[in-house]
Design brief:
The complex is a heterotrimer of chains A (486), B (375) and C (389). Chain B is of the alpha/beta class and 375 residues long. Chain B has helices spanning 13-24, 64-80, 135-146, 167-175, 177-191, 211-222, 236-251, 349-352, 355-374; strands at 5-9, 28-33, 85-86, 95-97, 103-105, 109-110, 122-127, 150-155, 200-203, 226-229, 255-258, 261-265, 269-272, 277-279, 282-285, 296-297, 302-305, 310-314, 337-339. The longest helix of chain B is centred in the last third of the chain and has 20 residues, at 355-374. Chain C contains 21 helices and nine strands. The chains are: A alpha+beta (486), B alpha/beta (375), C alpha/beta (389). Chains in contact: A-B, A-C, B-C. At the A-B interface, helix 7, helix 11, helix 12 and helix 13 of A face helix 3, strand 16 and helix 8 of B. Bound molecules: flavin-adenine dinucleotide and iron/sulfur cluster (2 copies).
């Protein structure tokens, strides 16, 4: 049996991994680059389920179970930091009571932490915390997980094709038997017995190309990246999920998020300063001194929320749970499936659920193994080293050396799987040309320009204080020293 | 002892230029600065816009006689601290080449830096172990941009190299005897087989104090012109200028006060955060723009000069960054506090390559105003 | 984890690297940016081990004074040093060297280097100071003069001056008296500002030392117009670092001796010295910490007003002494490489003036020229003037 999966985000790769483990030959096609959708632009939280205990109990339970499982099978891409839910004086007592009840009912471990101890550990938190609880939140290193999945999938003989866009289906009667794809080399058809739409926020558009109506509600969220990891644990506000109420420490940085704004388009909009200011204000309800933390950039991600009943006004109310649609059953298009909604945290479960339905629809008995099989080897990020022959130090912020750059890999997105160049405090000002200039010589100037624009957009929304000076420096280095056209 | 005193706030290019010109006019100068200025961030050449006509588009108008006098003075000043500035022969604005192979305009250029008014074939030299050295991509871009031939040669890593070697370390090494002979030998070897006569450009790390001597020796070795292309911050060209210029000013008796100025009053008076205060006959505000630190961007996007407590622009989008600044050189209206360099708005050195014109025009105009006051 | 203001502000311009004297002479030294903000960021994320060569930083703070965004680079490096593992043997040595006040109390201890120094890691090539402790009787004498003048000034007697350079203290007191002030040495017993401990990355020790000295100084400041410091490093430490890093303040202004004289002396004072025949050529050396704390040019300006021959600036960055730095075996090479430039830049022999005792010893040794505190030179000229008259 052969399956084509559309979209190489967390969901698509989770699906492919589950299918591959069942012995099914799978090809993932990705219109842009691996992780260029929402999966490369998320908050980094490995949910304990705590956030959804009251509003979305089934999502909460799934998150918790997957969280525990991923620690076993993909430990390298998970950091078990732990997290706190903090209730400020004045926050709703009834919500807290329901939250605690739900935790007990659903089996999500939560234990009270003395406020004094909490503040001794995280001295930056506000003094007006009334109660706090520890939960098994963690950090999910998205790019690392994606590259582990890609390697694991490829090592079992299946394929992930980038810059390959699925445009239409080829049918044999009512049944799918191929997917037409567009790639730089041209258009061709991939033969298959089934196709899975895991195009995230684009899933509605993909389904529309198939002549189907699937209600995907794209909703974007803004996140702010602080330059240094000034906080070691996840911190959530204990109240009904809302904007700017979670801090996640992610490697060298801390990310504050998020907002939730429904929009028609699946593309991430450009971040706006007014929203960044609002997020700062919300964040400082938990960390009063937040204004003195340097914000490095702001970025938007688009949630692929699924709303069976159609688009609602308030995207916070749309379930965080996921859905698998068998379009054969639902719409009479046999062999076509969509996997919609969900969280990064639950990507494996989404794969398993799809896999179960898919094999069942073909009457094949091939149980899922993704619960047991470890996702693979660690893709190590270079730790700072002092003396070693790794060539010149190209990116000082994120410690990327010449030897970390593989000559075969040259697009900025691909480079990010091995390194974090241009993501640190200089935002590419000093390293972009050094790294890209060691790749493809002819495409170099264009790639550099693209990367600059992308970095500048994220920087400008948070252009104040030291960051405004970085922007000015970046502008003048790029024009004066490198002579880039503005 | 001189009766005329001046305070200069800031030790970037505008501050240094103001200080030198004030000294020439007999002032006793105190420089107040909290940190190094931006000289070490730029290569040390002066850009004046793409054509000479562009000069007149600036907020300050100088006649062409004034401009040529200004250039002459600038060249003399640089010579006094040991840097030879080369001015263009004709009307054309020459270009230099950059680390990524682009051609960008330059006007008054220290003699170590490559400048030419016509595109020509070049030999690009890369040095292994130098992060900014991307000779392949550089030559490819240059070929495309100039339509001329670009040869590439690479030098091996110097002995003793490790990955802590940044541009300053390379420059310090090449400044010494061991480094100089290593360079001469490896370059001679590398240039074998490259057609003779074609000018050679090297990354700007050829020494700190002995650059001119080194480049002369190298061009004798290679029998062709050898010069440098600028790199980014810390830019060795700017560091050379800064170090030599500061040394001269120290020897001329300038007092460099380190400390953060908190407020500038029209008296004129500068108050420091540590309680010290300084008064003089005139005060030149050379505290820079957003990069220099003279202007702060608030969270809601206002650009503020905190020293005189005034909003001077907004940074709602990227392009706005360069338009900000004081509108008048006499920025407080009393005729004694004068904004120079990037503290004055209306220029966009990044986009229009007119930073050199900005410096000369503002500083010269401000000096005229200082002398006005004394009369 | 200790938090610093602007710890995350670095925009990677590398101006700090251009200012660092060690980076230019030590080919393995990673430099301020790598050891400070770059390292610290990874350290905060729990990812960084201490780097080699971190202890080669002299804590001169020239990097900080170059930084456009106020990153406390040298102080981040001090945290880095604290983490760098050190052999127990060097720990003993560092503990001794960071408590110069003890060495000063028992001057015979400084005979150490010869017998014990080598195994302890104390440089045998760096010149060691000759003890010249402040004698009780002498100190008493300075006190006795009090009643006559009306304006009282404190002189902060740092551990080095107390133990090894009492002549400078006496000279400074005499000059101040000449200007119409009564000089009160303080604190009354041997104390240290804590700078040496901070420079070695002993942050806790630095704070304890600072607190105890602060208590001792504070209670003596009532009725004083100002406190004058004789050493630039102590000046920076008391005036800038104590309040910024430990929240310790002194209720009266703190001023370096040179700035005080330049500020308060009347023209007559300068003229009296200026005309004296037969003065030697003067070189001025502004120490790193004085540049950082207050800037450069005041010593030169003072000398321009009093010296017959135009003074010259000793055009070097850091001389390499850097407190106890040069006394440590592993730093000898760098310290000497830095100081060596002094001899190169001096056209003709002369006398070097500088307001740091350790810099003076180091420079004197490397140049062969007498190197003293400006107070001693001024005092010497005043005495000559009396004789000549
Ligand atoms: C602001 C924000 C914060 C979040 N934070 C968290 C969090 O902390 N923890 C958590 O668990 N979850 C979080 N999520 C949710 C999580 O990120 C998403 O649920 C998850 O990444 C979705 O993955 P996906 O693979 O479905 O979509 P995507 O990652 O968007 O993947 C879809 C891919 O399909 C490709 N594609 C589209 N059309 C085609 C086509 N025709 N042909 C080929 N390819 C195509 C796209 O290029 C894209 O790469 C967050 C989401 C947002 C928006
Ligand atoms: S304190 Fe001095 S020696 Fe240390 S890194 Fe800074 S400049 Fe270099
Ligand atoms: S000078 Fe300051 S901002 Fe520049 S690299 Fe050094 S620490 Fe960073």
């Amino acid at each position: 049996m052969r399956v084509v999966v559309i979209g190489a985000g967390a969901t698509g790769l989770g699906v492919a991994w589950d299918l591959v483990l069942r012995g099914i030959e799978t090809t993932v096609v990705e219109a842009q680059e691996i992780g260029s959708g929402t999966s490369g632009r998320f908050h980094g939280l490995l949910h304990s389920g705590g956030r959804y205990l009251v509003t979305d109990p089934s999502a909460a339970k799934e998150c918790y179970e997957e969280n525990m499982l991923l620690r076993e099978i993909a430990n390298e891409a998970v950091v078990a930091t732990g997290g706190y839910f903090v209730k400020k004086y004045g926050d709703d007592d009834a919500f807290e009571a329901r939250w605690l009840n739900q935790a007990a009912d659903l089996g999500v471990p939560v234990h009270a932490e003395k406020v004094g101890d909490l503040r001794a550990e995280l001295g930056m938190l506000t003094e007006s915390i009334q109660r706090s609880y520890w939960v098994p939140d963690g950090v999910l290193e998205g790019f690392k997980m994606l590259s582990m999945l890609v390697r694991a999938i490829q090592s079992r003989g299946s394929n992930v094709l980038e810059h390959t866009k699925a445009v239409k289906l080829r049918l044999a009667g009512e049944r799918v038997n191929g997917v037409e794809v567009q790639a730089p080399e041209g258009t061709r058809v991939l033969d298959c017995d089934a196709v899975v739409n895991t195009a995230g926020p684009w899933a509605g558009l993909v389904a529309r190309d198939w002549g189907l109506d699937v209600k995907v509600q794209p909703s974007y969220g803004l996140m702010l990246i602080f330059a240094n990891r000034r906080l070691d644990k996840v911190v959530n506000r204990l109240k009904s999920p809302s904007d700017g109420d979670i801090f996640v420490p992610h490697q060298e940085v801390v990310i504050l998020g998020t907002t939730d704004v429904a929009q028609p388009s699946p593309e991430a909009p450009e971040p706006r300063r007014s929203e960044a200011i609002r997020l700062m204000a919300l964040g400082s309800e938990l960390i009063p001194d937040l204004g003195s933390w340097r914000v490095l950039r702001g970025f938007n991600g688009v949630r692929p929320l699924y709303e069976p009943s159609g688009v609602t006004g308030d995207s916070r109310k749309v379930s965080r749970d996921f859905a698998v649609l068998d379009h054969g059953e639902r719409d009479g298009l046999a062999g076509a499936f969509s996997v919609l909604g969900g969280k990064w945290t639950t990507f494996r479960l989404m794969g398993e659920t799809l896999g179960d339905q898919l094999v069942a629809s073909f009457n094949v008995d091939s149980p899922s193994r993704s619960r047991e099989v470890p996702i693979g080897v660690e893709v190590k990020r270079p730790a700072p080293v002092v003396k070693d022959d790794r060539g010149a130090l190209l990116c000082e912020c994120e410690q990327v050396y010449e030897s970390d750059i593989k000559p075969t890999v040259s697009s900025p997105m691909q480079l990010r799987f091995g390194t974090w160049f241009s993501m640190g405090p200089c935002q590419g000002t000093f390293c972009a040309h050094r790294v890209l200039g060691r790749g493809d010589e002819d495409g170099f100037a264009d790639e550099l320009a693209t990367l600059r624009r992308e970095r500048e957009h994220g920087l400008t929304v948070v252009g104040w204080g030291a960051n405004a000076r970085l922007i000015a420096l970046e502008q003048s280095i790029s024009a004066q020293s490198l002579g880039e056209e503005r | 002892m001189s009766s005329k005193t001046a305070i200069v706030v800031g030790r970037g290019p505008a501050g240094m230029l103001s200080t030198s010109y004030l000294l020439q006019r007999g002032y006793q100068v105190t420089v107040l600065a909290e940190s190094d200025g931006s000289l070490g961030m730029w290569p040390g050449d002066f850009s004046f816009g793409r054509t000479t006509d562009a000069f007149q588009a600036f907020p300050i108008e100088l006649s062409s006689a004034e401009w040529s006098q200004a250039f002459g003075e600038l060249v003399a000043l640089y010579r006094s601290f040991g840097v030879t500035l080369v001015l263009p022969q004709a009307q054309d604005i020459p270009h230099t080449v950059t680390a990524i192979g682009n051609m960008r305009p330059t006007f008054a250029t220290p003699n170590w830096q490559y400048a030419s008014s016509e595109p020509e074939s070049l030999v690009f030299v890369g040095i292994d172990g130098l992060a900014d050295s991307i000779v392949g991509a550089q030559a490819a871009t240059y070929r495309r941009r100039s339509g001329c031939e670009a040869y590439e040669v690479s030098l091996s890593r110097p002995p003793g190299w490790d990955s802590s070697w940044g541009t300053i370390r390379f420059a310090a090494y090449l400044d010494g005897d061991a480094g100089a002979s290593w360079l001469a030998a490896t370059l001679r070897e590398a240039l074998r087989g490259v057609p003779s006569g074609i000018p050679v450009v090297l990354p700007q790390v050829i020494g700190l104090e002995h650059t001119e001597k080194l480049l002369t020796q190298l061009s004798e070795v290679g029998k062709r012109s050898v010069s440098e292309f600028p790199l980014l911050s810390p830019s060795i060209g700017g560091v050379r200028v800064r170090d030599r210029w500061e040394r001269l000013l120290r020897q001329q008796g300038v007092r460099f006060v380190s400390g953060r100025v908190r407020e500038v009053q029209p008296v004129p008076r500068a108050l420091l955060t540590d309680g010290r205060s300084f008064e003089a006959d005139c005060l030149l505000l050379a505290s820079g723009g957003v990069l220099g630190g003279g202007m702060q961007v608030t969270v809601d996007g206002a650009i503020v000069d905190e020293l005189v407590n005034r909003e001077v622009g907004r940074m709602d989008h990227l392009d706005a960054l360069d338009a900000h600044g004081h509108r008048e050189i006499d920025c407080l209206g009393g005729g004694r506090v004068l904004a120079v360099g990037r503290a004055m708005g209306g220029w966009n050195p990044n986009r229009d390559h007119n930073g050199g014109a900005m410096l000369l025009a503002t500083v010269r105009t401000a000096l005229g105003m200082c002398e006005e006051v004394d009369r | 984890m200790k938090r610093f203001e602007y710890e995350d502000a670095c925009i990677k311009c590398s101006l700090c690297v251009t200012a660092c004297p060690v980076y230019r002479v030590d080919q393995q030294f990673p430099g301020p940016k790598a050891l400070g903000p770059d390292w610290y960021r990874h350290y905060q994320a729990g990812e960084a081990k201490p780097m080699e060569h971190v202890s080669d930083c002299t804590f001169c703070q020239l990097c900080e004074s170059a930084c456009p965004v106020d990153v406390p680079i040298a102080h981040l490096i001090a945290v880095h040093k604290e983490l760098a593992s050190q052999s127990p043997r060097l720990a003993v040595r560092d503990y001794l060297l960071t408590h110069p006040q003890w060495l000063a109390m028992v001057p015979s201890l400084v005979k150490l280097p010869k017998q014990l120094g080598v195994p302890l890691g104390i440089s045998s090539s760096t010149q060691w100071p000759a003890p010249s402790p402040l004698q009780r009787s002498r100190r008493h004498r300075t006190h006795q003069r009090q009643g006559s003048a009306t304006r009282r000034i404190g002189i902060f007697v740092d551990c080095f001056t107390r133990g090894f350079d009492s002549e400078t203290l006496l000279a400074a007191s005499a000059v101040l008296e000449e200007l119409g002030y009564t000089a009160v040495p303080l604190p009354s017993a041997s104390h240290c500002c804590g700078a040496a401990a901070y420079a070695s990355g002993l942050l806790g020790e630095a704070e304890r030392t600072a607190r105890s000295t602060h208590r001792a100084v504070r209670r003596m400041t009532s009725g004083l117009e100002a406190v004058v410091t004789l050493n630039a490093t102590c000046d920076d430490t008391l005036r800038v670092e104590w309040p910024r890093y430990f929240g310790l303040t002194i209720p009266v202004p703190i001023l370096p001796f040179v700035d005080f004289v330049l500020d308060r002396a009347n023209p007559g004072f300068f003229e009296r010295i200026h005309g004296l025949p037969g003065q030697e050529l003067i070189y001025t050396h502004a120490t790193c910490r004085s540049k950082v704390a207050r800037g450069e040019g005041s010593l030169f300006a003072l000398m321009e007003r009093v010296s017959e021959r135009p003074p010259q600036i000793l055009e070097i960055s850091c001389c390499g002494a850097a407190g106890s730095y040069a006394f440590k075996t592993e730093h000898t090479k760098v310290a000497r490489a830095l100081g060596h430039r002094a001899k190169e830049v001096m056209g003709e022999p002369g006398i070097i003036l500088t307001d740091s005792g350790t810099c003076a010893i180091h420079l004197q040794e490397l140049t062969g020229c007498q190197t003293i505190h400006p107070a001693r030179w001024l005092h010497g000229q005043l005495k000559r003037q009396e004789v000549l008259r």
